[in-house]
Amino acid sequence: MTVHKTCDGVVRRDFLRVGVAGMTGLHLAGYLSLAQAGQLAEAQGKNAIFVNLSGGPSHLDTFDLKPDAPAEYRGTFNPIKTNVSGIEISEHLPHLAKCADKYAIFRGVSHTLGAHRLGTEYVNTGNRPLASLEYPGYGAVITKELSEPSEIPPFVAIPRSSQRAGFLGVRYAPLNTGRTPTIGSPFSVRGVSLGQSLTVSEVKKRKALLDDLDTTFAGAEENSQLVEGLDQFSQQAHAMITSPRSRQAFDISKESPAFAEKFGNSPFGASCLLATRLVESGVKFVTLTHGGWDTHRDNFTSLKDRQLPSFDQGLAALFVGLEEKGLLESTVVFVTGEFGRTPKINSRTAEGGRDHYPRCMFMLLAGGGIRGGQVIGQSDDKATAPLNDAILPDDVAATFYKAMGVDHTKEYHTSTGRPIMIVRDGTPVEQAFA
Predict the structure, then answer these.
(1) pLDDT in tens, 351-366
(2) Which of 158, 133, 131, 145 lies closest to 52, judged by CA?
(3) Cα-Cα-Cα-Cα dihedral sign, residues 114, 116, 122, 128
(4) For position 245, what pLDDT does the model report?
(5) What domains sit in the chain, N to C, each tagged with a CATH number?
(6) How many CB atoms lie within 10 A of CB 159?
(7) Which has the closest alpha carbon to 342: 60, 154, 22, 5?
(8) Reduced to 3 states, what is the DSSP secondary structure of residue 15?
């Protein structure tokens, strides 16, 4: 699996804090013991897929081209027509151009956090980061609000996620798969083989180890949030390891070749295929990570040859595949990076690159009552800022929660009793549902 570093030297997987469970191999049982069930809410959106474009993709070279801008802004890419009249996107997104009716493009989304870590925290929670508080990510909130007891985990990250449980506690953290799948091959989830080769003796050995770990943790940290509920979920953990339903959910080799073919052969495409299978199996929230968008140098070659082909094919197949399975209307898809890129091309290389630029970026939403085939918001003639009122990440977060039937103004309480709204600032963008 490729590991992408951003310009500040941060490895995306290092955004996650490795806890005791990760260090000891307490993966599946520990995860389940920490995954308490919330209450099921009625909503058009029943599941969600969050696509994290880590590094910050260029808005001018993807979904907000400015062909009439001066050359030092517009770059070398040209717009192409989509299947929706009046909407154009990059020529290097031909698959997404053919299914533009399935998603809404938010242009002119704007904020002020130009560092990777802070921008990532912002767009993964819908709240500007605070030094005194760690907000829960979307997946943690959806797990708390919408999940039901099941042998299927409610929150899965492929291969891992920048979203944290925050003050909600690790019981709402994701099950990280640890790697990306390969189309046509059985898939093993981190720490637990879910292939048909899993034997009863292996299961017994794992369960005995987990029992020992449970006892050790309970004695050492009797009141620790990390080990809360281990006894309650021990049988559920064992059931998941041996469950045919879990093996089926994670095994993309079970998909028909004709269905899988449209996703291509890239790790991102395979992750998109797995995401469709997971939500079909009952997983409430899936995160996908597609890194490598930190294009300070050689922006156009990097996008054309490396980033855009797999992104275009995989994401388009995700939209089309969900629709073919009858899942698009019940699955909210949220696509974003942490910021956009500078409209004016730098001169670090002969070709040039684009730097961090939070003042203007794009986001995509689909499914769950979101009307596809529309552009929401607008940037100015050089894509340097919103043309009119800015759309904030907080507003898109509130829109996402509305699509999922979750009241974004609902208050939670921290361990000290401090009341915190799910989204502190932000108003749903009603045009998204019109």
Answers:
(1) 999 999 999 999 999 9
(2) 158
(3) negative
(4) 80
(5) 12-433 (3.40.720)
(6) 20
(7) 60
(8) helix
